[in-house]
Here is the input.
Amino acid sequence: MRRLDKLYLGTNTKMYKTIADTCAFLSRLEELTEDIPKEELELFVIPSYTALDAAVRTVKDSKIKIGSQNMGWEDEGQFTGEISPVMLNEIGVDLVMIGHSERRHVMGETDQEEERKAAKALGSGFTALLCIGETLEEKNYGISDEVLRTQLKIGLHSIDGAQARKLWVAYEPVWAIGVNGIPADEHYADEKHWVIKKTLCELFGDETGSDIPVLYGGSVNPGNAELLIRMPNIDGLFIGRSAWEADHFNQIIRAVMPIWKEG
Ligand code: PGA
Here is the structure.
């Protein structure tokens, strides 16, 4: 697989930061990463819905992309509690995350629902970040590859090659995420990224498939970030806890950028 021309690094702040926290975090991150060229780094932050408007205004014209943590699959309708693509467009959001592990396993979302959201997000002009990953039980049964392939084949069922150009994928094994997570070994993660990349090539052809960034997420920390980014099939890192302080996130960015550049 060829190396992509940018490194992808981002964080999802889950249900942790208020509007004020989000803006302070973004301003500091922007200041700390000012010197890094946009051509080399795709930096993104995915705050809570309530902070999105302020977040987009805080980073106006900067290199940080702002994403939403979820999105409804219709423009409008009887969907109490959902947020539509029209509303996200109005705010000026660039990116929509779909199928985060907590949406799937805490809120009970299905692959079929992720498919409707992925199609709607890409059809509405957003970059879509589809998250996939196997549970510990599935890993123990030895069916991780089958699960990942199923999540991709259903989740991207109605996406065409042109839409796939705005698709990103995050591999986040469920057992690796959050406070009780065990970080995946970099070799295991790389092997799964290869399965994902091969599946994307099967779905969209080699040219488009191999250009889709595949990021690793799940207990990324200062101790494993460098090991992960050395792996040939890992195009970036999707970080939770270890990136929620701008200074800590910047330290990880500074540690992995030179490794990625060495290629
Ligand atoms: P974590 O979160 O880095 O805190 O494990 C990752 C994620 O949920 O995307």
